[in-house]
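Allow me, if you will, to draw on your knowledge of protein folds for a short while. I have a record of one protein: its chain in single-letter code and its fold written as discrete structure tokens. I should value your view on which stretches of the chain appear to form regular backbone elements. Thank you for your consideration; the sequence and its tokens are set out here:
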Amino acid sequence: MNWFKRYVVGCLIAVLLFAAVDSDHHPGEEMRTGAILLASAGWPVVAAIVVGSTIGDVVYDLRQGKAG
């Protein structure tokens, strides 16, 4: 992964953590709408980037003959 992908993944993971911390700071109350939106929008993007990057690395290695 290049530095930009690492930066984007780190930011998206931070968004998920901030949403979790926000819900933890208000126990017994309902989760804030902003935290729900951040968590629901953030996790699919993180999953897609991680899975897509992994598949891309595997395909690249297969084409270069480095698989195994």
